[in-house]
Amino acid sequence: MGHIPFGFKVVARLTQNRSNFERGSFFVISPDTVDAESLANLGWSIPMVDRSVAIQLLGKVVKGFISNENNAVLLHDFASAVSDPGWDEYKYKDRATTYQGEICWVLKGPDTSDHEIEELISDWSSYFPVSGFFSAASAPERKKVLTDADLEELARNLIGVVVDIFDGDSFALWWREDLRPFPS
To answer: What SS3 state is found at 81?
Structure first.
């Protein structure tokens, strides 16, 4: 996979150093209307595509993964800070966790609604570039602040990494199918 120049910096560094990316498979999450033959550059946008379809598809993958209460998905938010105006009014602020000032949105638990998952993904993916981390065997409750030990556990139990492609119109997902079947 090479150098990871994006995302939750600390987590990206930990996962890059501790994960064997050659063991995983890559999937593209995009609308069926995308003509794969016409795509030339992962950084270019896809003309006439409804990105909400890709958000819904990624939402289904997230929902399938977090249906196991020990699994969590962390979505890095490099654009927000807890000191931002309006932070206290943001309806999903209780899903935020931080490490050294970096914010990550935590999606966890089978009771998380499809609507909430899709809204958080939509908010998160409106910033470029984006990255998210699928981790198994996490703590049963959400933490407001992550410790070094939490990041080590995340890296040890990494199942997948998602990033935006085609200027945010779709997503690429690296997944360890040898550890967990890809959620359908």
So the answer is: coil
The span from the CA of 49 to the CA of 52, in Å, is 9
Token reading at 92: 């999903």
Whether residue 162 contacts residue 173, with contact meaning beta carbons closer than 8 Å, is answered with: yes
Q: Which of 159, 151, 130 minimizes the C-alpha distance to 64?
A: 159
Amino acid at 53: V
- Distance CA(138)–CA(144), nearest Å, equals 14
- Model pTM score: 0.82
Please report, as a single letter, which amino acid is at residue 105. W
User: 171 - beta bridge partners?
Assistant: 29, 164
Model pLDDT for residues 36-95, shown as the tens digit of each residue: 666 665 555 666 667 788 889 899 999 999 999 889 998 888 777 788 888 888 888 888
Cα dihedral: 115, 180, 8, 70 (round 10): 70
